[in-house]
Specification:
Blueprint: H1 3-8, H2 16-19, E1 39-43, H3 47-51, H4 70-78, H5 82-93, H6 104-136, E2 139-143, E3 148-152, E4 161-165, E5 173-179, E6 185-190, H7 191-194, E7 196-203, H8 214-217, E8 223-227, E9 238-242, E10 245-249, E11 254-255, E12 260-262, E13 266-273, H9 279-282, H10 293-323, H11 346-360, H12 369-385, E14 401-402, E15 416-419, E16 426-437, E17 440-442, H13 448-456, H14 494-506, E18 511-513, E19 522-524, H15 528-539, E20 542-547, E21 551-557, E22 565-576, E23 584-590, E24 596-602, H16 604-608, H17 616-631, E25 634-643, H18 646-661, H19 666-677, E26 682-693, H20 697-706, E27 710-714, H21 719-728, E28 737-741, H22 746-753, H23 757-783, E29 791-796, H24 797-803, H25 809-817, E30 821-825, H26 829-842, E31 847-851, H27 857-862, E32 865-869, H28 876-879, E33 883-885, H29 891-928, H30 941-951, H31 954-962, H32 968-973, H33 979-982, H34 989-1014, H35 1027-1048, E34 1052-1053, H36 1055-1077, H37 1091-1096, H38 1099-1126, H39 1130-1137, H40 1147-1155, H41 1159-1168, E35 1176-1177, H42 1188-1194, H43 1203-1212
Parallel strand pairs: 15-27, 15-31, 27-30, 28-29, 29-30, 31-32, 32-33
Antiparallel strand pairs: 1-8, 2-3, 2-4, 4-13, 5-11, 5-13, 6-7, 6-12, 8-9, 9-10, 14-33, 16-17, 16-26, 18-19, 20-21, 21-22, 22-23, 23-24, 24-25, 25-26, 34-35
Helix pairs in contact: 4-6, 5-6, 6-30, 10-11, 10-29, 12-29, 12-31, 13-21, 14-15, 17-21, 18-19, 23-24, 23-25, 29-31, 29-34, 29-35, 31-36, 34-35, 34-38, 35-36, 35-38
Biased composition (Low complexity): 9-19
InterPro entries: ATPase_P-typ_cyto_dom_N (IPR023299), ATPase_P-typ_P_site (IPR018303), ATPase_P-typ_TM_dom_sf (IPR023298), ATPase_P-typ_transduc_dom_A_sf (IPR008250), HAD-like_sf (IPR036412), HAD_sf (IPR023214), P-type_ATPase_IV (IPR006539), P-type_ATPase_N (IPR032631)
Organism: Hibiscus syriacus
Length: 1219
Amino acid sequence: MSGWDAVNSPKSQPGSSSSRKTPARTVTLGRVQPQAPALRTIFCNDCDANMAHRYRGNSISTTKYNIFTFLPKGLYEQFRRVANLYFLMVSILSTTPYSPVNPVTNMVPLSLVLMFSLIKEAFEDWQRLQNDKAINNIPVDVLQEQGWETLQWKKLHVGDIIRVKQDEFFPADILLLASTNSDGVCYIESANLDGETNLKIRKALEKTWDYLTPEKACEFKGEVQCEQPNNSLYTFTGNLVIDNQTLPLSPNQILLRGCSLKNTDFIVGAVIFTGHETKVMMNSMNVPSKRSTLERKLDKLILALFCTLFSLCLVGAMGSGIFIDRKYFYLGLLENVEDQFNPNRRFMVIILTMLTLLTLYSTIIPISLYVSIETIKFIQSSQFINKDLNMYHAETNTPASARTSNLNEELGQVEYIFSDKTGTLTRNLMEFFKCSIGGEIYGAGMTEIERDISERKGIKVQEVQMSAGSVREKGFNFDDVRLIRGAWRNEPNHDVCKEFFRCIAICHTVLPEGNESPEKIKYQAASPDEAALVLAAKKFGFFFYRRTPTMIYVRESHVETMGKTQDVSYEILNVLEFNSTRKRQSVVCRYPDGRLVLYCKGADTVIYERLGIGNDDLNKVTRDHLEQFGSAGLRTLCLAYRDLAPGFYEGWNEKFIKAKSSLRDREKRLDEVAELKEKDLILIGATAIEDKLQEGVPSCIQTLSRAGIKIWVLTGDKMETAINIAYACNLLNNEMIQFIISSETDAIREVEERGEQAETALFIKEEVRKQLKQCLDEAQQYFCSPSGPKLGLVIDGKCLMCALDPSLRVMLLTLSLNCASVVCCRVSPLQKAQVTSLVKRGARKITLSIGDGANDVSMIQAAHIGIGISGLEGMQAVMASDFSIAQFRFLEDLLLMHGRWAYIRLCKVVMYFFYKNLAFSLTQFWFTFNTGFCGQRFYDDWFQSLYNVIFTALPVVFVGVLDKDISPSLSKKYPELYKEGVRHMFFKWRVVALWAFFAVYQSLVFFYFISATCSTSLDPSGKMFGLWDVSTMAYTCIVVTVNLRLLMMCNSITRWHCISVGGSILAWFLFIFLYSGITTPLDRNDNMYWVIYILMGTSYFYVTLLLVPVAALLVDFLYLSVQRWFFPYDYQIVQEMHKDDIQSTDPSELLESKQQLTPDEARCREISQLPKEVSRHSGFAFDSPGYESFFASQFGKYVPPKAWDVARRGSMRSKATPK
């Protein structure tokens, strides 16, 4: 009895359903999430049976909150920040009788910050809600009582039978039952899932082809036993039980939610997974957020401020405990004294005074800092990075994209870049270039890499002329008269040639599209390599023009008669697909005459391991050809075949079907079965495909190297190919000392030939240990020599696997960190991630990974920063990245310009917040010494509340967004400036101490200068100034001073800087005019009434407002002068060098200079001519011409700056005469 019949049988027991289930277990498949029950049982077309399992509905929700959880959950998220939690605690303390300030003092800024953050969260969540509603309400046809009824997506349930029409999206994960195309085939596009626009083929089981009409579909009663929901997009394990027959299900029968139906009128399917249990939704889980190094340092700075706050409170509390004494009879401490002022309980006095001062000095922690930083980062990413025309790729219409704004400043501190090769450094536009067939090389021409090698050797390269009969097409750049236009028939090895062409025409998963003519057909391929090989087969006379799930049709050139063709159909019996573990693809096909052939193509390492005995000469010659191709920078594949006896194939196929039907470890069992057949192969030959370098890659790498960034290439290619690509990219050069650690040695080959895997692994490990030690000993002499040659390391995958062993890891890390360039070849995706993590954790350096394919995802996620290339291998890398760009060369703009600017700007923002809050809080601290440490407040409550959120908030945002030390062109002209970020020049404890000194000095000026002068000054009525007059005067000076100090730290001042600074000062005056001019019964303190008007009625106010900011900023001005003159930063040197640069207006000069520009520079220049904000640069007054250290660094030498040389040359300088 089938599972479906069992449920509907009246004899069915309540527990019968559960009795069929397999015991629970936990599985881990890569990133697949572990599930409790091992299997899921679904009864198609039976809602009642599925209801007992309580499967989730199809409605989705991507919102973080709902109407009930918004406030509690939103507040919880906000109070996870230490600063917000601190202010909440202080606000609670301010409501106690021991608080000298009104609760509004701390509650207002906290409320404003929370309100801003919650409004932002609510707006973002509202947008998610609207998007969810639109998706949930999409209509779909559902089978209801022998007819199709249109329902909304959200009303679907597991087991429903649905119909999806052409160009519609699949509403859930569906089991394909039938299609309007022949043989149950449909075509899908998965761009929303993985970014790939190539059409993919899916085929229903032959048993279900008839369930296309609603009448037939109502008869379908099947039971699906499959894996539990997981996030693995490319795997599916399950069986369909129908009519007492168990049929294996694979990913070829599954249509995933988010994909769309193409080239098919409609399909009928059964819903397997719904809603949040679909694979696309399970992949949409948030990746753990990355925190930048600056944010982690900011946490330490906040902790330092907490320690400072505690120290100030402790000093004040101890002072209060000492000061409280009954001898001060006028204080009224003789009887009925509060605990806080009771001389008999000094310990209690200290404790309560600590609480009092904690609320009084609370402004030392900048509550608005986080909000300001988030705002700045968002604007930097959305308005500058995303809209940078220099990083826009017009050919593919792809702009740069910041997928997160958390890591903007991290881009300015990168020290190591880990890069994929194919599609990242190269274009991933494959062209069939050469081949080796039967031991003979075919194909003329010279690759870019070969030209570069010849030029390095001093050999003059002549342009190779194409032959008269050569054929050029995108993807086919082959020239050899011996093969093209049917000439291969005249070759001595024409039978091998025919086998070669048939192999590349049959062994693939390419889908033809469009008209079945050689001129109009288009190929949809999973990779550019496959498309290039199929295109080559067409050019050689083996035209693949049609595909069904079981047949491939090839129009072949007639073997005997020139010019004639014949259509041949090959039955595809089995396809063993390519993956990163197998590194090969195999197809079993049956010829029309009944011949059974296994065609296999793959990496040379895996193919050679599976070759049969004999043909040693051919194998050796072909291996030499592969090395030649690799040296020319070509991508190689080996082709092999094997004839299969019918009896052997039938026995093997039974094992294959059994492995496909397995619900556990299906992939492992399929690999084991494949090994039984993929052996004793006969080598046909090898293909060589050219993948040219992307535009601007060598110059970009050279520029990044000058910036102090070390670049590692991690690729799966052969060592020869990787080395030559590295030479072409300027990663390696002849001046470098190169260390090569390879497993391709005679000793290792000899051990490998014995076939003992354990012995081979131990021997390779020992050899790697010896090679690492030898390289380290040789490199030691260069480590301490700054002017010595640069080092380069090349290591292959086998050796790397051993070197990553814990016992050798330290040696590998020590050697590689001292190398300017590292090339790892023949590496797997896992090894890429391991190498990245090794440097990230072992060296504690900022790392960046960049790649374009799914095999780069683990590497991208392992690094501090992940960059995805929007290339031809889908969008998996982009979807897993933090930033995406279209070309590798755009890294130059992203790092040297945007990254460096973001780092410098945010460092300034953090330092400024630290300075202004410390200066403000310390004036209150100095006042405490004049009040007997009793906790009397110096400022009005509203002054303290609005200081951070109104009067000093806006200007610093403009600095974080618009400040620019040098132009973009100079940033790339002097990439050495980037090293300042790598060395953390602008955010270190020495810089913090310097800003703290300025804050302490200015706070002393604010308090003692004003309090001293106020004691001898009188108001217009002849009275002395009181407390609120003094505090208002001091507060006015503070607001003016800290805003002016902001302008002093700017490298460029725009009208927005002036408007924000002037507006902040004006806002203070408008506020105080209203606040002191209006009185209400609710006022806590009516002593502020008319204070500002009284102050402004005296000359004292204007003289003080002029002198105090000057006196407070004098030390800052002197320091900046001395620092710029004697100890300049590198960017200040560049500013001085180019301060007199003017834009030429002579048309002839402009034309001449334009002709000398590279295409990239010309484009940048055209962009620079667009109308934009004109900045007025400031801070260039201290001209100093003698900067030997900077110029020495241009040539890779280190010379410490000498102050006396700078001063001496400064006295000898000659001023430029104006033209």
